[in-house]
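quick one
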Amino acid sequence: MDKVSIVTGGGRGIGAATSKLLASQGYKVCVNYRSDAQSADAVVREIIASGGEAFSFQADVSNECEVVDLFDATENAFAPVTHLVNNAGILFSQMSFADIELERFNQVMSSNITSCFLCSREFVRRVKSTGAIVNVSSAASRLGAPFEYIDYAASKGAMDSLTKGLSLELAPRGIRVNAVRPGFIYTQMHADGGEPNRVERLAAQIPLQRGGTPDEVANAIVWLLSDEASYVTGSFIDLAGGK
Ligand code: NAP
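structure w/ NAP:
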């Protein structure tokens, strides 16, 4: 059976590393992006040049209709989706809780957890037999991100609960749902938080004394999706250098 995957926010960072690794292991990959078509297309070109199968698809995964379009497009290009990586996520500038505006809070929730709900629901409605979902949560769900982005941490806490609940609902059907909780990974996301060198600043406080790479996170995601993890569901892999 074809292994057909969607990686939301697959054009850069952890999503790009995951898309490439999945393709190298024989998955057909839909590289979803919201605004950065150039990066997503570069990932697709690299996959195809290495003999893999992929296409990019623009969709805001916090939008119900666009999520349906994303799954339709993938099904038309390949076959029904068997593996889903809910990776898309955003954060905004570091600030104290009291300064967080409602509009920002709602945007973070919508991009980080509504997107996960919509994509997972679409997956569940369509998946035929076995399959797997990996949610890209964050160490922030455990650490809370005080004075930085409690809104972001709360969205990831919600993702952890969704992971647990959905894994229990889907277990009798043999569909596995797990999450990774990265922290301090070298990607562009920290620039969006207003501190491009955040990982370097925090490195000394991380037990392993360094930040992590997107490839290190992708390895865990792809393992959780694979048959090697066939008895793993409702589980969380922390990738935060021991923090
Ligand atoms: P990144 O480089 O900023 O990538 C985020 C990706 O998400 C982008 O490709 C972006 O697409 C996409 N995206 C955001 N909102 C979207 C939406 N509504 N619809 C579709 N795509 C959307 O960040 P990253 O560090 O690789 O983050 C990936 C995931 O890891 C996120 O969920 C993040 O919370 C999580 N994470 C990261 C770290 C870290 O230290 N970097 C730590 C813990 C967890 P466009 O560019 O096209 O807009």
